[in-house]
Design goal:
18% strand, four-stranded antiparallel β-sheet, alpha+beta, eight-stranded mixed β-sheet
Length: 487
């Protein structure tokens, strides 16, 4: 992280004061159930987005992406409308959503570095929104519950960018816990509990390299289909408000009341909510094979019922059934491209990834990205304390320079006439020798033979403090120096 701090200072000319990180996420089971107020199993991953930020005066904000070198600049008075296909929209959207809630962001310089694959289904956008949200919160004293920060991110997607997504991505990025899956209920908008994945298994992510842009895909159409199906089912079953309220048996009984497309979309969502419950039971019982089989079942429903898969993703899932070590796989995320996840035995994970990648490249001529993901913790933010310490040292040095100036201009007795709390120099006896004593202390430390022992000299404030200690002054003539050039 120190390397990022150095790059920030080199680019902006000052150090960052805030560091925030937010991970990407994997949807394990519960595809398109979040906006249907259903259940989801997900996890945060070790791949994350880091934001370094320093508040500045004025209304201008500057952004630097250290991954690709791109830069953006915008004025806080002109953020209400997004610029098409500009990654800065996710940052400006957070500012707009906070403003709606009466929270204001000031000018800032910020740098970004991310290891979350872009447009792959690991929610790089939510990681970016969450990291900036947490950074803004610390920098501008904005306090909100974690679930509200998730809603801010969702608001960016829903209202600023026009994508009618749910809360899954932001929830997973915020509430992640190392080595555990997250069971979430999106009706009550809460994490029900963490579900432990038994030791001995890895989640291998294989990127189909088909980039998806959910804003331009049929994502919103799928949501409309789900809402239409729920409205028709509500007329048959009192108490139904979303597809989360419908059982598999009820849906089959009412199949004739829906058109074929509505039925298929509903079958996927209702089935996914059921699979999440069964998967949780399997993991609680240590039945990893049963859990893995539900991943394959989920993908088949995506392929047939929700039609949000691609031929590349279908091929990766079919490969998983023939390569040793895999217990289940499926597409993950919104679909329409992106990644597949594979539950693989630890000892076979490396070889599994190589074999799947080789077969995929042979068929499509493209090398897929293979990532062995660790299940990680959720978003964090830190105030970089070194800045405050640095400012304190500078203050001491300023006080020492003032005292030296007083002695030089007004005479030796001037320092003794200064208030006792006006600086460490005021209490020195024989102030007429102060300049020579300090210069002696600022000289490089030497050995008995006169060789240079350390090239780093003390700062002025350190020299003043050392002079106050017993035996702190070196005897002998100080080397000739002009104190006014000491920095």
């Amino acid at each position: 992280m120190s390397n990022l701090n150095d790059r920030f200072k080199a680019h902006f000319g000052k150090p960052a004061t805030i560091l925030a990180r937010a991970p990407g996420r994997l949807e394990i089971l519960g595809n398109h159930t979040d906006y249907n107020q259903g259940f989801v199993l997900s996890c945060a991953v070790s791949q994350d987005t880091t934001v370094l930020l320093a508040p500045v005066s004025g209304r201008v904000c500057r952004l630097k992406d250290f991954r690709d070198g791109s830069e953006r600049t915008f004025d806080l008075d002109h953020v209400d409308e997004p610029i098409k296909r500009d990654w800065a929209n996710y940052v400006k959207g957070v500012i707009v959503e906070l403003k709606k809630r009466g929270r204001l962001v000031g000018g800032f310089d910020a740098a970004i570095y991310s290891t979350v694959p872009l447009s792959a289904g690991m929610s790089s956008s939510a990681a970016l929104e969450t990291a900036f949200g947490f950074a803004f919160g610390k920098a501008f004293d904005i306090e909100m519950p974690p679930a509200d920060w998730a809603r801010v991110g969702q608001g960016v997607e829903n209202y600023y960018l026009g994508l009618k997504s749910g809360l899954l991505d932001q929830f997973s990025s915020i509430f992640g816990r190392a080595n555990a899956l997250i069971l979430s209920d999106f009706r009550t908008v809460e994490v029900l509990r963490n579900v432990i994945l038994p030791a001995g298994y890895s989640i291998v992510v294989v990127n189909s390299m088909v980039k998806h842009n959910l804003v331009d895909s049929e994502y919103n159409v799928r949501r409309q289909d789900c809402e239409s199906a729920a409205a028709k089912l509500a007329k048959i079953y009192p108490g139904v408000s979303t597809l989360r309220d419908v059982s598999v048996v009820q849906l089959d009984a009412a199949k004739g009341e829906l058109d074929l497309r509505e039925y298929r979309r509903a079958a996927h969502v209702v089935g996914e909510c059921d699979r999440v419950k069964r998967a949780t039971a399997c993991l609680d019982a240590g039945d990893v094979a049963g859990f893995g089989a539900l991943l394959w079942e989920s993908h088949e429903s995506s392929r047939v019922n929700f039609e949000n898969s691609t031929v590349e993703l279908d091929y990766l899932v079919e490969l998983s059934k023939s390569v040793p070590g895999c217990l289940g796989s499926r597409l993950s995320g919104g679909g329409f491209g992106g990644i597949s996840i594979h539950l693989v035995e630890d000892g076979k994970a490396e070889e599994y990834g190589k074999r799947v990648a080789a077969a995929f490249k042979l068929k499509y001529g493209v090398e897929p990205e293979v990532i062995r993901c660790a299940i990680g913790d959720g978003a964090r933010v830190t105030e970089l304390q070194y800045k405050k310490k640095k400012e304190t040292n500078k203050k001491k040095e300023r006080e020492a320079l003032i005292s030296l100036s007083v002695v030089r201009r007004r005479g030796p007795a001037a320092a003794d006439r200064r208030p006792r709390d006006s600086g460490p120099v005021a209490s020195l006896s024989r102030p007429g020798n102060l300049e020579r004593r300090l210069m002696s202390l600022l000289a490089p430390a030497t050995t008995e033979r006169g060789r240079v022992k350390a090239a780093v000299r003390p700062t002025l404030s350190e020299a003043v403090e050392r002079s106050l200690r017993p035996g702190g002054l070196r005897s002998g003539r100080a080397p000739h120096r002009d104190w006014r050039r000491v920095s």
